[in-house]
Design a protein that fits this description.
Blueprint: E1 5-9, H1 22-32, E2 38-41, H2 53-67, E3 72-75, H3 81-94, E4 98-102, H4 111-125, E5 129-134, H5 136-139, H6 145-149, E6 155-158, H7 166-172, E7 177-180, H8 186-191, E8 196-199, H9 206-218, H10 221-238, H11 242-251, H12 268-275
Parallel strand pairs: 1-2, 1-8, 2-3, 3-4, 4-5, 5-6, 6-7, 7-8
Keywords: Lyase, Schiff base
EC number: 4.1.3.3, 4.2.1.41, 4.3.3.7
Protein name: Dihydrodipicolinate synthase family protein
């Protein structure tokens, strides 16, 4: 069985004054290099709706400088097609060759509207690999596997309710690559033929997820059970949240834990039980 990839969905780190902290973001990327298979930048974990165009351009450049174009997926999604196209141009100019685009959001969009949106971004992307990003729980936009197949994209990231249908997407597009946003389901994703996971939790705790991927590939059931237990422990402590991930990184000495988007306070003591 091929090894499932672990791509870290990196949080965006800010200074105390709320500005983008380039040094902290570089430190995080450098720490992750060699620990995970690649990174997914400026996505949901990266608080992309709270970032301006210049900041997203900077984040792409920082990730590409550390991981290179083959191991960096730059999220260029936006609510408007115009902005997504502009972000695509910026990512390409920075040297990106792998892009992801979330469906439109906020205003209702049917399958045909999504197809037009993806087609416009795909034209702007040219020869770059472009993946769809489906997160119906957050965007309010749902595509069936058959509707996604009609977009012509080469695969995608499936989060929330879409992740539960990974096998259906694989059946509809057997030659496409699909990653799951369900961090701890590495084993199930691998066995369903998925490419791997795009994992926010692995930004703070890479080893449980890469150990799990390696154990599944090797068929080592004991190692798989141990890694799965550790991954589940991380999920329970951090809650799978951006604030939990940032607090864990703060406890590791990377960043200050600050978010731009309002969120509940993290469970500092509970997170300390897994970072200590």
């Amino acid at each position: 069985m091929p090894r499932a990839e672990v791509l870290s969905a990196t949080p965006t780190l800010f200074r105390d004054d709320g500005a983008l902290d380039e040094a902290a973001n570089t430190a995080l990327l450098t720490w992750l290099h060699g620990r995970v298979d690649g990174v997914f930048v400026a996505g949901t974990t990266g608080e992309f709706p709270a970032l301006d165009r210049a900041e997203r351009r900077t984040l792409a450049a920082l990730a590409l400088a550390v991981f290179g174009p083959d191991r960096t997926i730059v999220h260029v999604g936006a609510a408007s097609t115009r902005e997504a196209i502009a972000l695509t141009a910026d990512a390409l100019a920075a040297g990106a060759t792998r892009l992801a685009v979330i469906t439109p959001y906020y205003l209702p969009a049917d399958a045909e509207a999504v197809r037009r949106h993806f087609a416009a971004v795909g034209e702007a992307a040219g020869d770059a690999d472009l993946y769809g990003y489906l997160f119906p729980d957050r965007t309010g936009v749902t595509l069936s596997p058959e509707q996604f197949a009609a977009t012509g994209l080469r695969g995608g990231k499936l989060s929330g309710a879409a992740a539960a249908r990974l096998a259906d997407f694989r059946a509809a597009l057997p030659d496409a690559r699909f990653w799951s946003g369900a961090d701890t389901e590495v084993a199930a994703v691998a066995r369903a033929g998925g490419a791997g996971v795009v994992s926010g939790l692995s930004s703070a705790f890479p080893e449980p997820f890469t150990d799990l991927a390696a154990a599944v590939e090797a068929g080592d059931t004991a190692a798989e059970r141990a890694a799965q237990a550790r991954a589940d422990e991380v999920l329970a402590a951090l809650g799978g949240t951006v604030e939990g991930i940032k607090e864990a990184l703060r406890q590791r000495g990377i960043g200050n834990g600050r978010l731009r988007m309002p969120a509940p306070a993290p469970h500092v003591e509970r997170i300390a039980t897994v970072t200590g």
